Amino acid sequence: MAIIHVDGKQYEVDPADNLLQACLSRGLDLPYFCWHPALGSVGACRQCAVKIYRDENDKVGRLVMACMTPAADNTRMSIGDAESKEFREGIISLMMTNHPHDCPVCEEGGHCHLQDMTVMTGHYRRQYHFTKRTHLNQDLGPFIAHEMNRCIACYRCVRFYNDYAGGTDFGAFGSAANVYFGRVQGGTLQNYFSGNLTEVCPTGVFTDKTHSERYARKWDMQFAPSICAGCAVGCNISPGERYGEVRRIENRYHGELNGYFLCDRGRFGYGYVNRKDRPRKPLAKQTDGFATVDNASAITRIRQLLTSGKAVIGVGSARASVEANFELRELVGAAAFSNGMTRGETELCRAVLDVLREGSVEAATIRAIDEADAVFVLGEDVLATAPRVALALRQAARGKWFDMTREKKVPDWQAESAADIGQHEFNPLFVATPAPTGFDDVAKKTFRLAPDAIAQLGFAVAHALDASAPPATFAPGDAVETIAHALRAAKRPLIVSGTGAGSVDVIRAAANVAYALRKANPAVRISLAVPEANSLAMALFDARPLEDALVPIERADAVVVVLENDLERRLPKPDFERLLERTKLIVLDHQMTPTAARADVVLPAASFAEATGTLVNMEGRAQRYFQNFDPAYYDRSIATLESWRWLCRIRGGDAEHENLDDVLADVETTLPQFKGIVHAAPGASFRMHGMGLARAPHRQSGRTAARAIVFVHEPKSTVDDDTALNFSMEGYNGAGRDDRPPELLPFAWAPGWNSPQAWNKFQTEVGGALRGGDPGVHLLAPAGRAGYFSPTAPRRGDDLRPIPLHEHFGSEELSNLAEPVRARMPAPYVVLNSDAARGLGIGDVARVSIDGIDVHLAVRSRADFPRDCVGLPVGLVGVPFGSTSRCTVAAARATEGG
Ligand code: SF4
Ligand code: SF4
Ligand code: FES
Prior knowledge:
Layout: E1 2-6, E2 9-13, H1 19-25, E3 49-53, E4 62-65, E5 75-78, H2 82-95, H3 113-121, E6 144-146, H4 156-164, E7 171-175, E8 178-182, H5 197-200, E9 206-208, H6 209-212, E10 222-223, E11 226-227, E12 236-242, E13 245-251, H7 264-268, E14 283-286, E15 289-292, H8 295-306, E16 311-315, H9 322-332, E17 337-338, H10 343-358, H11 366-370, E18 374-378, H12 382-385, H13 387-407, H14 415-422, E19 429-433, E20 445-448, H15 451-465, H16 479-489, E21 493-498, H17 504-518, E22 525-529, H18 535-541, H19 546-549, H20 552-555, E23 558-563, H21 573-581, E24 583-589, H22 594-597, E25 601-604, E26 613-616, E27 621-625, H23 643-651, H24 660-670, E28 693-694, E29 725-726, E30 777-778, E31 801-805, H25 819-822, E32 829-833, H26 834-839, E33 845-850, E34 853-862, E35 869-873, E36 887-891
Parallel strand pairs: 1-5, 16-17, 16-23, 18-19, 18-21, 19-20, 21-22, 23-24, 24-25, 28-29, 31-35, 32-34
Antiparallel strand pairs: 1-2, 3-4, 3-5, 6-9, 7-8, 10-12, 11-12, 12-13, 14-15, 14-25, 26-27, 27-30, 33-34, 33-36
Helix pairs in contact: 8-23, 9-23, 9-24, 10-17, 10-18, 13-14, 15-16, 15-17
């Protein structure tokens, strides 16, 4: 540690930091723009000027940029001396020369870093009274609005988008006082992390277009600590609500997971919460459609069905909370409860669970992925299945730059020096997937292989690393030694795989590589993606797959209770129709899915924004998401309840009075594999200074008039019996002490810090862990009991094998219901090897038959796509279910398709 002296006070700091980081980490306020904890320093804005002194006798000192000066031991500096204050105020004044001062109409207003820094520097008066330079703005697509006149030329956007996220369609153009940040021509930003520009840009150049449509100031929204359900990474998010609608999603800092960044699916895919076609009241089927019924009648009807003497089956869901699935299991009994996944999905998720629980290698956090120095990806396009992992893989590859800078005694935070030194050098990343990925550009080598061949490559690499690991069943070529050598030489090797390739063998091969490395290097980590936000929890339930649970229906009529699951996405169409013929269907969901539309009774379930519950992410971390708002506060006719609460009420008796803490305690008692889940966040009785915690900013203006559009009388805020949070600005809000448990932080705010930069105030050190520990409880620890897996024989035969391909936009069920995401989905397609397509006489359109259903799909033919495979996009509208079923492909006749 180093000691620095700031304005006469002594602070212990990390000497590897620069002075700006060091001051912020010690809680001192110092303005800055171009520095960002994840992007480092470039010294572009000159806003962080401080005085440093040679020794205690030096009374003159000299101005330096704090972000460009190491926090060397015994540094003497001043933030508050008159000359540095005047310099910083002058810098803001210069930055404001062309700034339009349009805060009242700027959507950044109220959570703007430029506003905060302007106030912090004491720049109160506009000094430039002449004509301002103006720019034309660009249409950047459905997510991001562009207002270039607000730019202060800090270069953060281009450093994030191009350098950090690997974007290629964005840049800085022009020179001197006329620099433009945008695309060569207007058009949709292509990078899947573009939404982070809205938080990275310290002013209102890039704002969230999905928010613009229904805009509310930060202080007028209500927030909750929440978890993204867009995939199983479990990024922490801060949804903002106004008038019973989610208005935007921002990043909620988590030191081990998302850090400062979300993917676009997670940020912009929330629109399904606000859909007008959601079921909002219980619905009972009539001869001519649905009739709305009250809650009590719906429950009575369901109880009648459940006691009608027919077999009762419960179908759970990997997108529903642990609590909801548990209550369904309690309702129907363990034997009749299905995990809601197909047999194939179940096998894949169990294979992942097996590796994480019985194996010898720890699951990687996103931070660990960032820091890996050699990576082998087997079969998983994580940019689609676990997008935040893909962003971390890019940082792992770039990590080489920082190793090189360290060798030259240049500190990590010198971002431009690192880029200059590193140039095109990357840590070794090997990517074996059937189709190209969005991170191939930083790969040392890519392999386009069928899943079987990927597994064989993995088994061969494991055998090359440790001769006691079983060899592959065929010789996979000379790449094996290259990969093995790079992984062996690494200090922090990482293996990435998952369920995306649809092959248990691929997961096992990945595990073998990790196990083989573990023998010599305990720092190895494994990252295994699973299909949905709560898939790993469903594997932990150890319940039957969908097909097995539905077997009784073959013999007799049954009652099926479906929890937040669209069976049409899982069962082949004929099976789905057969099921409907023989069942009474009770569906709990927050969307009118094709399954809900065919139900006898629909119960309107709360979405993530209206519910509190727990998800288990792909590392086995249980995380609690909290209810953002009570939808009935603005519309008393809305009858949505959390699925777990509906199910408690159906069970009746004492169960009706359960709250979340009771449900969680029951989960732990009944299913010991979930032990620890109650500690994912403080319970309902938690209080700070005798108070519950506020969900809304304490500056929330006009709160007492907020409901005046409904009725002039303001009703009491809804009481939240399930959590320690209040639906209100009232309650403990940290009062500038930032001492709330990180699990209960709804949004970033600290006195003087209204923008997302306020997360600095909640961290042990900038960019580090949250004070009190990063949220979540690990339910899995590798027991070290598993040995090596043996490869299975490769598939024989000439028939084309359908393999799943995944899309960032289009494969995930719920974000597909958000209009801006729909605008980014690709049209349905099929991928074939070019030679194979030619051999079959297939041109631009193919006739694809999946379980007897024929569709015409545009053909993407690729020379490097495995010859014996047909690539079918998962979940894409227009592509039927059946990626694991038999599938045939033929040329479309001249009169067909097109
Ligand atoms: S657009 Fe924003 S992030 Fe980019 S240089 Fe301008 S102010 Fe900085
Ligand atoms: S990576 Fe997954 S969890 Fe994170 S923001 Fe994207 S979709 Fe959500
Ligand atoms: S933050 Fe230091 S120069 Fe910009």
